[in-house]
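Blinded run. Sample ID left blank on purpose so nobody reads anything into the name before looking at the predicted structure. Input follows.
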Amino acid sequence: MSRTIASLPDTAKRTAWIVLLTLSSVALSLIFACATPFAAFATLAALHMKRSDAFLLTGIVWLANQAVGYGLLHFPQTPDSFAWGAAIGVAAILATATAMLAERYLPKLALLTMAVAFLSAFVVYELVLYAVSFALPSSDAVFSWPIVADILKVNVLTLLGLTVFSFAAAVIGFLPDHAPVGERR
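Blinded prediction complete.
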């Protein structure tokens, strides 16, 4: 079976990989709703995908999260809610760009690069949302240390799971061919 998967054209593997990650994000959105681990997806995308694919995945993951939220979880359909949704999308894109910058300027040590890229993405994501909270209605509790720590934990566990998933996909030849981290741009 792996020979069949490995022989697929890169375009098919790329599309299938984005679909699989999007389905993963849908499942996580159903579980965590507003705490979807966007920093984890941003980091994975930044470190293991071409730049255009990384931003495409981030946008699709955000769109899938919004579809789950408004379509299945019945998020309120108010201007404030839509504005928060847009802010989450902007924060996710900026988290992806931040992880890319971290990866670009760090020594190419896989674990260090992943850790710094992830922490950078997480901090930027949370800071953007915190800044938005001054303009849009929110609760002070949303940015309390216990809540942020829980969101961090969800992101860390998701990043670990996605990394294992990516490794397994690479082993069976499912991922499109691309240069190692730092050499693909």
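Unblinding after everyone has recorded impressions. DSSP finds seven helices and no strands in the chain.
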